[in-house]
Every structure is written in structure tokens, then in C-alpha cells.
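Box S2. Input/output pair 1.
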Amino acid sequence: MSNSLSVPNPSLPPLNSPTTPVSEQFLRFHLDPDMTALLPIEHLIEVLSIPLGQIVPIFNMPAWVMGVYNWRGEILWMVDLGHLIGLTPWYQQNTSASIHRAVVLNVRSKDATSTLVKSQMLGVVVNRVEDIEWCNPDWIQSPPASSVTSELASFLRGYWLKSNDEMLVVLDGQAIMAAMPKSDVLADS
């Protein structure tokens, strides 16, 4: 069983909202000690603490697919997000953690052939989860092509340069979900 922190429901009014009404909430986390990233709260369900050994490896999957985890009685595929975007894999990072920190990603998409909305869930393992950031989507900029690796580029919505010159990478939850291998095993979960 895991300890979890629920992500605030974006439909509820925030307790400490920023002064600009066009701001959105993003979860701030680290992919490795040197890269801070953001994902939109609207794509997230929960933050999990998973003890090591609770993710069951599945053979014949890409190296960044860690395996599956029993989450609320359902099979949740787990992905090393840093490894997926071209960073050092979680297991090679210098860490003494006895748990995996993961974020449950929930992406909804409309079926092209009907009006049905399809929901897909995926667990993404990250180095460390911090807090919620408020950001105006207009402040998210496209990075120069020369500063982004090809692995990262396909998952990148942009970056946000804060007033203190801290650069935060803004990831695209739908692109992360689209990267999952297409197989009968994944389609059934």
C-alpha cells in the first residue's frame, strides 16, 4: 500500500489564488537534481509514494517502461519520465531513496470517430515532487532548437523563465501518453 497526496481539484476555487485570473496551476517536480519541470494540474490525479519492489517489471518493453503497479485495484503502467525524455534513468541516479515518487497522469482525448471522451492513465516516476506553481500560459516560451535534445523536444510544451531567472521546463501530458508502446497488453489496461 502506498502513501499518497491528492492533487488539488482544479475545479475548486484555490485558497491563495494569484492576482492574475488567467494563471493556471502546474505541479512542480524534479526529473533529476538539475532539471525542474512542470505538468498542468488538469492532467494529474494523484502523487504517490511507492516502496521499492512494488513495481512489477514487464519484459519486452522499452527501457523507460518500469513495469506495472497495483493502484486502487487497477493496473497502472509506470514510466521513468526522466529516462523517457533522455535524462539519466532513475535507477542510475545517485539516490538512497527507499521509495519511488510518482505522479498519476490522466489524459482525456476525444475519439475521432465519435463524441466519446477517452481517458488514459499512466504513472510517471520522478526524482522529487515539490509544490504547485501558478503560471500564465502566455509566459510559456518556445526554447531555442539548439538548446533542446531531440528526446526532450517531442514532450516539451515550452519553458517558463521566472522572475528570479529560474528556468522551468513545461511538459505536455498528452505527448507523454502518446509515447507509450501500442500493444494489446497496454490497450487492455
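Box S3. Input/output pair 2.
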Amino acid sequence: MGKGKGPYLCGLDAAVDVVGGKWKPLILWALYAGRTLRFGELRRHVPGVSEKMLIQQLREMEADGIVHREVYREVPPKVEYSLTELGETLNKALEPLGLWGDKHMERLVARQAEKIEQSA
């Protein structure tokens, strides 16, 4: 899974391997609750991600069984992404982390600003 690191030390180690990085949690969040998105739509829901990085992250998540990629044989080609059942359970597990971030976001942003000021 993820980078294929294993064996894992604990469940948290395994989970972080699958969702590690800046973009995977945002991709998971964009594909919440049975939502299906085409590549362009998904890219709009994850601002700042390059096309190359989004493709790479989606491939890793598909290999991990988190994301389902459906290719429709038509012209022009149509590809849709959705969460698998495993991906849905992972998204639910991340909900408390998102709530923690919402609760502490102001404090976290202030700390980042302090760091920037100190390094300038």
C-alpha cells in the first residue's frame, strides 16, 4: 500500500502510508459520500495540485484500493473517479481529524505567520 513500505509498526503507520502527503486527504475529501467526479472536476476541487501530481496520487490511491477509476470507451474518452468501500471508510476515519483542524485552524495559521516573521 502507499509507497509499499510495510511491514507496519502499527495501524497508524499503515493509515498514514495510505493517506500521506499533501494531496491525498484533499482528494479523499473531494470524493466524499458516493460522489463521482471526472478528472477536470476533481482538479478544480483540489486547488493548487498539478495535473502530474493529481495523476500520480490517483494512481497510488487506485493501487491501494481507495479510489475506483472507471473508463468509458467513447470519443472523447471519459474517465470518472469515486471512492471504493475501503475509501469511504477511510474518509469517515479522517472526519475527526478535519473537525480538529477546523477547531484549531485560527491558532495554526497564527503559528505559521509567526514562523514566517521569525525567519524573515
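Caption for Box S3: The mean pLDDT is 89. The chain is about 60% helix and 10% strand.
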